[in-house]
């Protein structure tokens, strides 16, 4: 129970379904903030109090479990290391994979619980004895992308009570139940960067690592920067270019070179990608996709989709797209969905290592 409206209603529905429910709030920061500002961050002291008040109304036990050290090692330090290596990670995906459905799930099972229920917007069912992860009924809130790296053995112990609902209905239900969090804003930022300034956060951890902004076409130096960790592929604003393009068109970040410190920039069309290679593929249902399977690939939590064909080559997931995608960065996840009338079943997930 994060202290937000989604996990509150998920807990209430679990109670209504007749389950023996215990509320757990995760303490993920060694120094949690005392006040929450709008939609900035989460896991503050205020959030813990909000979650406890909901548990009191529902009449369920409530505990705070301290995973701050594990969260720092598995999510925050991973986030910093990935940016230092010129990649663009997704910390929410890592948190689900390593904290909520690893550290939390392991402890819950050890204590005798049967499952972990969360307020994620995704649907989960058993098909032929195997878990099937699907998009939620609310396209705008769907979180199947950030859950797609979960393994079959993790999903067997998962419950997503909100998967068939839309957010507006969840808020209305919270109001009807008399839950004070009904109107609480959603958290849209990285929870451990509550001010939303990712570049400053990374500079505090990595310091300055000066490098050059280089024109990908001519090799000319167009400016300087304090570290490749301040950029991501597809970025247009905040580049600090001293020399405008001859054709007057905007330039975008095309690639990052952490060893040389070069950030290569160029025209938007150079961002076009038709082939994606991903490492460490996972299969939520426990079944690897067949070579040459038709699918829809998604490279961002919301948006960035294209149909294509996927195969497994030397342990890596290789996706050839029918349509170009832009702004595809190493470190992001590529998630494959079944290409059928609904197109909402997750087939696989992998971490992008290269594109063409």
TrEMBL record:
Domain tRNA-specific 2-thiouridylase MnmA-like central residues, every copy: 200-266
GO biological process, one term: methylation
Residues the entry annotates as binding ATP: 26, 119
Keywords, ordered alphabetically: ATP-binding, Cytoplasm, Disulfide bond, Methyltransferase, Nucleotide-binding, RNA-binding, Transferase, tRNA processing, tRNA-binding
Membrane-crossing segments per the record: none
Active site, renumbered: 95, 191
Database matches in Gene3D superfamilies: Adenine nucleotide alpha hydrolases-like domains (2.30.30.280), HUPs (3.40.50.620), Translation factors (2.40.30.10)
Domain tRNA-specific 2-thiouridylase MnmA-like C-terminal per the UniProt entry, residue ranges: 282-352
Xref: Pfam families: tRNA_Me_trans (PF03054), tRNA_Me_trans_C (PF20258), tRNA_Me_trans_M (PF20259)
Residues the UniProt record annotates as site (Interaction with tRNA): 120, 332
A molecular function (GO) term: tRNA-uridine 2-sulfurtransferase activity
GO cellular component: cytoplasm
Main location: cytoplasm
EC supergroup of this enzyme: transferase
Sequence segments annotated as region (Interaction with tRNA): 141-143
Coiled-coil segments: none
E.C. code: 2.8.1.13
Protein family: Belongs to the MnmA/TRMU family.
Function: Catalyzes the 2-thiolation of uridine at the wobble position (U34) of tRNA, leading to the formation of s(2)U34.
HAMAP family reported for this sequence: tRNA_thiouridyl_MnmA (MF_00144)
Protein name listed in UniProt: tRNA-specific 2-thiouridylase MnmA
Source species of the chain: Actinophytocola oryzae
């Amino acid at each position: 129970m994060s202290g937000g409206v989604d996990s509150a209603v998920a807990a209430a529905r679990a109670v209504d379904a007749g389950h023996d429910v215990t509320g757990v709030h995760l303490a993920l920061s060694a120094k949690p903030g005392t006040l929450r500002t709008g939609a900035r961050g989460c896991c503050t002291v205020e959030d813990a109090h909000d979650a406890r008040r909901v548990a009191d109304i529902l009449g369920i036990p409530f505990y705070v479990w301290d995973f701050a050290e594990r969260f720092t090692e598995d999510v925050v330090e991973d986030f910093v290391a990935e940016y230092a290596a010129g990649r663009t990670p997704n910390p929410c995906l890592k948190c689900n994979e390593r904290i909520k459905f690893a550290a939390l799930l392991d402890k819950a099972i050890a204590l005798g619980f049967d499952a972990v229920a969360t307020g994620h917007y995704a649907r989960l069912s058993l098909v032929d004895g195997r878990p099937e992860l699907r998009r939620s009924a609310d396209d705008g809130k769907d979180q199947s992308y950030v859950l797609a790296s979960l393994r079959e053995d993790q999903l067997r112990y998962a419950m997503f009570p909100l998967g068939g609902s839309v957010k507006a209905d969840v808020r209305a239900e919270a109001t009807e139940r008399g839950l004070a969090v009904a109107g609480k804003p959603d958290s849209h930022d990285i929870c451990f960067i509550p001010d939303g300034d990712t570049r400053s956060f990374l500079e505090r951890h990595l310091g300055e690592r000066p490098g050059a902004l280089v024109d990908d076409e001519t090799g000319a130096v167009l400016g300087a920067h304090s570290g490749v960790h301040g950029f991501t592929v597809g970025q247009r604003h905040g580049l600090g270019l001293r020399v405008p393009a001859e054709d007057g068109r905007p330039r975008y970040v095309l690639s990052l070179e952490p060893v040389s410190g070069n950030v290569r920039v160029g025209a938007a069309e150079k961002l076009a990608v038709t082939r994606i290679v991903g490492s460490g593929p996972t299969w939520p249902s426990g079944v690897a996709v067949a070579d040459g399977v038709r699918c829809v690939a998604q490279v961002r939590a919301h948006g960035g989709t294209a149909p294509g064909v996927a195969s497994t080559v030397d342990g890596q997931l290789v996706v050839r797209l029918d349509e170009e995608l832009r702004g595809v960065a190493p470190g992001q996840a590529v998630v494959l969905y079944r290409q059928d009338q609904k197109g909402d079943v997750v087939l696989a997930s992998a971490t992008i290592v290269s594109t063409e």
